[in-house]
Amino acid sequence: MKFDIGILANQPVETIVRQVQLAESLGYHTAWIADSHLVCRELYVTLTACVLGTKRIRLGPGVTVPHTRHISVTASAMVSLHELAPGRIVLGVGTGDSSAGTLGLKMEKVARVATLESMTHALRRLTAADSLQFESGAQGRIAWLDRPHAIPLYVAGSGPKMLAAAGRLGDGVIMYSSTSPPIIEAALSHIAAGAQAAGKALEELNIVIWAPMSVAHDRALARDHVRGRVASAMRHPLPIELDAEDRAAVERVRRQYDFFQHATAASTHRELVPERFVDLLALAGNPDEIVERVRAIEKIPQISRIVVLPQVPGESFIEREHILRLFAAEVMARVA
Q: CATH no. for residue 276?
């Protein structure tokens, strides 16, 4: 099992660079930087600074979205980064969350399979130095690109339709569905169906779990720290049916979620998260608990990596650097 880090970059760019350098020194495999322009620092400025400040760790958007950037902009940015760091760049794509919410866009309008299909098709053609017909009807290409750039494309999904699309369209899948093995297995069945529709085997895909995470020797503090990220995860569909009580909890979060508090552990909407959802959707608690949870996930052979996503603190919460160090020392080292 390998471990990545997901970063909501609402701290200064120089702080994010130091955190990625720390993650590299601690053995994290990939750093995924969120694309949410009104909540976080600008994605490609941040990624460029991180690329120039590191030597080994892989980097990429986690995830970039189609409604704030034209696909040709994304393609040009990614191959430019790949020139700077060949073999270290990955591309995560999805239909968006806070980037849509802060603009007042409804998820049902932006979260469409057809959007993912057109996005992945366009990215593959443009990064391969091919031409593409744009919405205007004109043919276009990246004029300076003289050769294909092989950038692994990861597609994010949480509910059945998006997971199937991710399995069909991606080189890899970012599964934002659960940290509970039974729900992970349910999600994998949808990914497998999508892969099969594209003539692929599930084993050909690199599947990673996107997991809100907080670890501390103070169990209650760690669980409270992660609740804001769990609230975000609750807004997404799951690959299982929820009972009436759980559906009511999800609806409360969806109604009261504040997208402009998307990246902070001190968000007010965290208070709406029931204990049960912390266990279903996050890795949170003391090191022993998290080691046990990770070992349960390790038993699922199709899962290759876990992306751990710590929030930045509010007052009286845990610093991200401390979480990264403690997770590496007392979780990664024990399950390696």
A: 3.20.20.30
